[in-house]
Design a protein that fits this description.
With 569 residues, the protein is α+β, with helices and mostly antiparallel strands. It has 20 helices and 19 strands. Strands 1-18-17-13-12-9-8 form a seven-stranded antiparallel beta sheet. Strands 7-4-3-11-10-2-19 form a seven-stranded antiparallel beta sheet. Helix 3 runs antiparallel to helix 4, helix 6 packs antiparallel against helix 9 and helix 13 packs parallel to helix 18.
């Protein structure tokens, strides 16, 4: 532990320099990711990636590195990295065994179906997004404990200590992080009824150091006591005291009752590949599986990358998949999900039979509904492969940027706003424009539906790709496109990650097009087909690893859209 801690302090300046170098123009033109032979770690922040590689070098496996990275991101990437949120893990062991861990947040015991509606049954604006009532019972710490107990190799304390070091010694802000903190200064004050340590009256700038002293104390309790260091004792008391002060409903009973769930991964074939992804309460695995199975019936390789024909076919598949998502999916512990039907070739063949060449299908003809918004989200993903071939794909989140914006006083961590991911009223869109039905209605201790899609791909029964991204409702389509960019369009992993993307989610009935994704000719063809196009600045922020034919690994971080960094050794 001392060896790793000392090394982290020494390498801090080195990592900052590497991050700076990474953002130089020539690096942005790179078409090949970071090649390594013994291990690869790809995360949203260079410090977290470095910590992950350090753990691998010291004899840890991919699961050990995942735990260390999760806690490191809670310090270095506070807008999404967390101990006050939750997420999903998909894994493939070196022997080929696969599975998933659901550490998604849960609704509090006191939660009710209509808790966000007024006396007239109308949605109270913002109640599920900001403050104490937006908070689901956190799952991240329990999830990391479960992952380590089942598959970890190094001592728990050695995995949490690097995050303690970061919190105590401070994190030098990048421009991305400084700008993001500045955007939410007033939100922090509004929700907490006071200024918190994330506030800076002068405004944060690149190069400032953000110290997390109270978070360091919390991490020390987690380091020393494991699960009990969060769900009971001093940390739990601080959490409950803060929520009570702000009229929250989470109790000690909620913390005691929370447990992660091991689930069978969704697995479907695609040609000579196998797609391994997250099952419900994530919608990602089933939706991705439907998209991949539907794609087998079209020659996307021949139609080409981001051509009008390819975008047409993929968009038509996407709109049908997202309609299914809104209708059928929720927490499998509470609702019956027709998974076998949704993944059957007969169902999908019939479902997609109405796709016409060169003509858009209005979403109103797929299923009735009304949505008129779609907003951005901030989740984070990391992908890890160790020298033995163990692979872990984890997507974790507070939901929106900085979650509920509510900071646990004296404990230094932010709480999620995951309750907004429930269908707070059938047909009413959440912050990402996604609608839901009774299957995703609020119930006590129920897990809310998610779009997170941590994924692993096999080729000819061997590990081939580890992939995932943040992006709310756009996660599924970004993962889908990235996989096809490699398999069908022959891109390197870095090219597939850098590639400009598009998105359709059934409602609203519009195709989001990332700036620079298509030329004017393609744009005009899509409009002639009947599509409404909306330009957006960015889609996805992929973190991916590709296993090359010689057994080496290509780690590809989405450095064009953030501070994302791939390290290997």
């Amino acid at each position: 532990m001392k060896k790793i801690s000392s090394y982290l302090l020494i390498c801090f300046t080195l990592v900052a320099c590497q991050a700076k170098k990474k953002n130089q123009p020539q690096q942005e033109k790179s078409t090949i990711g970071v090649i390594s032979s013994n291990g690869s770690v790809v995360t949203a922040h260079p410090l977290a990636s470095q910590i992950g590689v350090d753990i691998l070098k010291s004899g840890g496996n991919a699961f050990d590195a995942a735990v260390a990275v999760q806690f490191a991101l809670a310090v270095s990437y506070p807008r999404a990295g967390n101990i006050g949120g939750g997420g999903f893990a998909v894994f493939r062991n070196s022997n080929g065994d696969t599975g998933s861990l659901d550490f998604r947040e849960k609704a509090p015991l006191a939660a009710t179906k209509d808790m966000y509606l007024d006396k007239d049954g109308e949605v109270i604006k913002g109640l599920s997004l900001k403050g104490s009532l937006a908070v689901g019972v956190p799952g991240s710490v329990d999830g990391m404990v479960e992952l380590h107990q089942k598959y970890g190799n190094l001592p728990w304390e050695e995995l949490v200590q690097p995050a303690v070091n970061l919190a105590e010694n401070g994190v030098i802000l990048t421009k991305f992080e400084a700008d993001k903190l500045n955007t939410f200064q007033e939100n922090f004050k509004e929700v907490n009824n006071t200024s918190i340590y994330l506030n800076n009256e002068k405004g944060w700038i690149k190069g400032d150091t953000l110290y997390h002293q109270n978070l360091a104390s919390t991490l020390k309790r987690i380091r020393d006591k494991g699960r009990a260091g969060f769900y009971s004792g001093a940390t739990a008391q601080l959490l409950l005291k803060t929520l009570k002060k702000h009229d929250g409903i989470i109790t000690q009973g909620d913390l005691d009752h929370y447990h992660s769930v091991w689930r069978e991964a969704i697995e479907v074939p695609y040609k000579n590949y196998k797609i391994i992804s997250m099952p419900p309460p994530s919608s990602g695995g089933i939706a991705l599986a439907q998209l991949m199975e539907g794609s087998e019936n079209y020659d996307l390789k021949n139609s080409g990358y981001n051509t009008a024909e390819t975008i047409h076919i993929m968009t038509e598949l996407e709109r049908r998949v997202y309609a299914d998502r809104a209708t059928f999916l929720g927490d499998p512990d509470y609702v019956e999900i027709p998974q076998e039907m949704l993944l059957s070739k007969d169902y999908l063949r019939n479902r997609n039979s109405s796709i016409l060449p060169g003509k858009a299908t209005p979403s109103a003809e797929i299923k009735e509904g009304k949505v008129d918004i779609i907003e951005s989200t901030e989740t984070t993903h990391f992908s890890i492969v160790d020298k033995k071939g163990n692979a872990v794909s984890i997507t974790t989140t507070l939901n929106g940027n900085y979650g509920s914006k509510l900071l646990v006083e004296g404990a230094g961590f932010l709480l999620n706003n995951e309750m907004d991911d429930f269908s707070i009223k059938p047909g009413h869109p959440n912050q990402f424009g996604l609608v839901g039905n009774e299957a995703n209605a609020i119930e006590a201790e129920k897990r809310m539906l998610s779009s997170m899609t941590p994924t692993i791909v096999e080729k000819d029964h061997q590990l081939f790709m580890v992939v995932g991204t943040p992006g709310g409702s756009t996660i599924i389509t970004s993962v889908y496109q990235t996989i096809l960019n490699v398999i069908e369009h022959g891109m390197t992993m870095q090219e597939a990650v850098n590639a400009k993307k598009f998105h359709h989610q059934w409602l609203p009935d519009q195709v989001l097009i990332e700036k620079g994704a298509i030329d004017n000719g393609t744009r005009n063809k899509l409009k002639e087909m009947g599509y409404t196009l909306k330009d957006v600045k960015s889609l996805g922020k992929m973190e991916a690893i590709l296993i090359l034919p010689d057994g080496t690994m290509e780690g590809a971080a989405d450095y064009t859209r953030g501070d994302d960094t791939a390290f290997g050794y």
